[in-house]
Write a structure and sequence with these properties.
Number of helices: 3
Structural class: alpha+beta
Oligomer: single chain
Helix content: 25-40%
Order of helices and strands: HEEEEEEEEEHEEEH
Strand content: 35-45%
Amino acid sequence: MNSKQILLSVFILVAIVQLYVPAKMIWVQEDVLSTGTAYKFRTAPIDPTDPFRGKYIVLRYEDNSISVKNGQEWTDGEPIYVLFKTDKEGFAQIKSVSREQPDQDHAYLLTTVDYIANINTELVIDYPFDRYYMEESKAYEAEQTYRESQVDSTQVAYALVNIKEGDAVLRDVLIDGVPIREIVKKNLQDKE
């Protein structure tokens, strides 16, 4: 083989790898969305956001911790598997955490311990779905709408997240069952 053929072969191999990696990432996300278990995570109020952080809504969750007997056995940043159950209103609650991968019959999330709280008796979980990205022209209005829903105790804001085999995809943010994109669209039309 001459040097041109080798160079061409290397170029083709690099091009295939560059196409394969993002395609696999997209395929995994789509698989989680289409076949994963959907959970509703009740959101909690957030601190004011920095306008330089980007075009997304920052999400915090009410149920993001679990009591443990000996928090000293856990470390910040440690990988963990989280199993969920749903409460009577249909919202996700942490059922258990483990260092060992659960069997494939249960939807589980692979994430990390954010930190140990309350004198080593509570693990706070680092959910990887804490940002909801939006179109730039609608992001500010969405952030305002979300903040208002957190202040109004009659409204229920939650994130719809699909979970499958350790992966999670944030599908939507809803306020009283209505997607935030629709609320923002209506609010912007009303302002015109």
